[in-house]
Write a structure and sequence with these properties.
The chain has one helix and nine strands; from the N terminus they run H-E-E-E-E-E-E-E-E-E. It has 121 residues and is mainly beta. The chain is 8% helix and 43% strand.
Length: 121
């Protein structure tokens, strides 16, 4: 199990989680090893441009919502470089990024669910 899988499990369990993902697919929104904070999300409130922790075809990504299909209750997940990972159902979207390196992402306001704990990993 990878680091994103572990974070997804904690967020799915109701925790707000801080961690440092690696990789360059989300630059400049998230640079490798910047601290992100992900909180449980109400997936019915997701919009294009939200950064979410979601499982697509068996892999967990911290990527962008690139399209929303309300009728089929699903979202399309893509990186910030134009690569589409695919569609996933709302129940596979575990959380929304609420901060990057201590800077709050205003678009996440009002989209989080009540949380049980804060876990800094």
């Amino acid at each position: 199990m990878g680091a994103l899988d572990a974070a997804a499990g904690r967020v799915a369990g109701g925790a707000t989680v801080a961690f440092r993902p690696s990789g360059s697919s989300m630059v400049p929104l998230i640079r490798s090893r910047q601290q992100v904070v992900v909180a449980p999300v109400d997936p019915s409130k997701l919009e294009v441009g939200d950064i979410v922790l979601a499982r697509v075809a068996g892999t967990v990504y911290l990527h962008l919502v690139s399209s929303v299909d309300p009728a089929r209750k699903r979202v399309q997940i893509s990186n910030n470089r134009g690569r589409v990972n695919g569609w996933t159902s709302r129940d596979r979207v575990f959380g929304i990024c609420v901060a990057v390196d201590g800077v709050t992402r205003p678009a996440s306001a009002g989209k989080t669910l009540a949380v049980d704990s804060n876990d800094s990993s």
